UniProtKB/TrEMBL annotation:
It comes from the Bacteria. It comes from Flavobacterium pectinovorum. This is DUF1801 domain-containing protein. Residues 17-109 form the YdhG-like domain. Pfam families: DUF1801.
Length: 129
């Protein structure tokens, strides 16, 4: 695990740390070619410089965010923001369904919107895959 992500996870409460560690392990296993780092204070995984998935601590949960998730057509993921992102929130480690997470990560590789160039395109998203 990336040392800065491990540090982020270790800074959480024990239950939240368990959620974060579990998410990081599954994400790393399923996105072996992704760059991962702390971006805007949260762990994020990138493919070719494009953000794919990340998680963050909210007041009462850990939010897992897929940047292109609205295009996944998954009922368990809720729309987030005005672009193409979707999320799921966890308050306990046992809420994580490994099979769902693996499916969403597979879709995250196959379905991507170009967030890397969103500023250059003045807020317009284009589909990459």
């Amino acid at each position: 695990m990336n040392p800065t992500i491990r540090e982020y996870n270790n800074s959480q409460s024990s239950s939240d740390k368990e959620i974060c560690d579990h998410l990081a392990i599954i994400i790393n296993e399923n996105l072996p070619d992704a760059e991962n780092k702390i971006w805007h204070a949260h762990p994020v995984w990138f493919l070719d410089g494009n953000p794919i998935v990340g998680y963050s601590k909210l007041k009462n949960c850990i939010r897992l965010l897929f940047w292109s998730g609205q295009s996944f057509d998954e009922e368990k993921l809720a729309n987030e923001g005005s672009f193409k992102a979707s999320e799921i929130r966890y308050t306990a480690p046992e809420q994580i369904n490994n099979e769902d997470l693996k499916l969403w990560l597979k879709k995250a590789i196959e379905i991507q919107w170009d967030y890397k160039n969103i500023v250059k395109r003045k807020g317009v998203l284009e589909r990459l895959k």
